[in-house]
Amino acid sequence: xxxxxxxIIVLTVMLLYEMVCRVTAIFVTxxxxxxxxxxxxxxxxxxxxxxxxxxxxxxxxxxxxxxxxRFYVPGRIYTTQKFANxxxxxxxxxxxxxxxxxxxxxxxxxxxSFLCKQILPKFLLICKNLFIYQRTDYNQGRNINKTIPCWxxxxxxxxxxxxxxxxxxxxxxxxxxxxTLFVSASPLIPLLALIxxxxxxxxxxxxxxxxxxxxLLLDRSGLDIWSNMLTIISYLSxxxxxxxxxxxxxxxxxxxxxxxxxxxxxxxxxTTTRFVSQDFLKLSTMSKSFxxxxxxxxxxxxxxxxxxxxPEYKYVGLMVVLLAQYLISGTSKDVEDTIKxxxxxxxxxxxxxx
Length: 354
Prior knowledge:
Layout: H1 2-31, H2 37-56, H3 58-66, E1 77-78, E2 88-89, H4 103-131, H5 137-143, H6 150-154, H7 162-181, H8 189-210, H9 225-247, H10 251-261, H11 267-270, E3 273-274, E4 292-293, H12 303-327, H13 333-353
Antiparallel strand pairs: 1-2, 3-4
Helix pairs in contact: 1-2, 1-4, 2-7, 3-4, 4-8, 7-9, 9-12
């Protein structure tokens, strides 16, 4: 519950930060005075993706990469100037995830972030268009003279600009980051994303066909910079999930414990560190019944197993990604043949007119 409330507060603050940075990024991109649409979209895409990711994923990175590695003793021993020979135990701060793995905290933070950043805005937008009058091409024809050409009726509708498409692509890139970067913490996130996309496809089709002007078409061979962004995210997801599984889950702990004991008996006691209050000199404010604290500091060598697991998971995941890219082509064979023919015709035209 505390993690959910903390995540919502952080997302609310970062949402204001993202809105300000997004307006600033659009204004700065226009001031750059790009010569082509491609360069304008490339600059806009890089700014939007960096802003969205920096405003969304720091809380998941904190729980999965940093909080799991904090091992604190139950109290900090310190001396005062007046009582140099007396030692005191401060209040205990359990800043790591305690006896539970940090992957549980990542699951809560990731689920709440996905609901707030992906599902809630779409739900509010759909409800707004359902209960509030929306101007479309159909009701325009009923309200005014039907003899007016359709392009004049469409002029009153909202336009589809480069900014509109950039925000749509940015939404999908952020969603792709949700379903890949920390998917090992919440395997149900891709299913939720699929359901949202099925509804979103229908909603966007209605908006583009009925409630928007006809878009100006441009000759493009693909997603351009957005394809490169998605490729970078897919490669980063391998390293992110490897670190998440190694540092924030019990997977390595179980493998390490089983290799030495051949059984899972007393595994819970293995994940907690015990101490004796008599080890602290002269004065101790800790209760005698307090025998163990939430932390994981094994006496045996544990970290080499974690470090060996990282390259193992990373290279296996990279091989799977490369194999999938090789087997599943981004374009069909007919499209590739058409592109080759067009390239040959263009080269021939340049040669003869040259």
